[in-house]
Each structure stands twice: as C-alpha cells, then as structure tokens.
Design brief:
Blueprint (H helix, E strand, L loop, with lengths): L26 H18 L5 E6 L4 H10 L2 E7 L8 E7 L6
Helix pairs in contact: 1-2
C-alpha cells in the first residue's frame, strides 16, 4: 500500500465541460470515464508489467473488464488509509501476453 501521511491531492486541471464548471456533463461520470481511459492507456502503452493505482471502488468491475481485454489481471483491496472511500488496484500483465 502507498504511504499517504502528509500527502495532499488536488485537481491538476479543471474539467471545464463538467456541470460544476458550467458544462453539460455530469462531474462523477466524466471523471469515471477519464479515470478508466487513463488506466487503459497505461495498459496499452505499458512502462512495466505492473500498474498500481488508487481508484474509486465503483470502477473496479469496469477496470477488471478493461484489464481482461488487454491481457492483464486485476486484484484489489480496500485502501483504508485514504481520507475517502477508495480501493487500491493492482494490474499485472499476463505472462502469455507478448506485448
């Protein structure tokens, strides 16, 4: 598990197309899609054979499907040290995957 003592997290850029910023898209749905797409990009252009990410637990079923599609396996556990409800997901490239 990653250490979180003293860590602060914040938005690096606003999602200006979200309703909270006056846009047409629901904030949570937009962030969920962005998060899944980011992790999928890491799988399609991997820098190693393991990816570890904190994620909202509601995304785990979708992320598992994305992982299977790209030849990765996913494991997860609750991330109790996080200030909000999060899970810690680990993705490993399947040994038979040649990429």
């Amino acid at each position: 598990m990653p250490e979180t003592s003293g860590a602060e997290f914040g938005l690096l850029m606003p999602f200006v197309v979200c309703q909270s910023q006056g846009g047409p898209y629901e904030d949570e749905a937009f962030v969920a899609g962005f998060t899944c797409a980011f992790i999928e990009a890491l799988m399609t252009h991997p820098l190693g054979s393991t990816i570890q990410r904190p994620v909202p637990p509601a995304l785990l079923p979708q992320l598992d499907l994305i992982a299977m599609r790209h030849g990765w396996t996913m494991s997860s556990e609750p991330w109790d040290e996080a200030p909000d409800e999060w899970a810690f997901a680990e993705f490993e490239r399947s040994p038979q995957d040649p990429s």
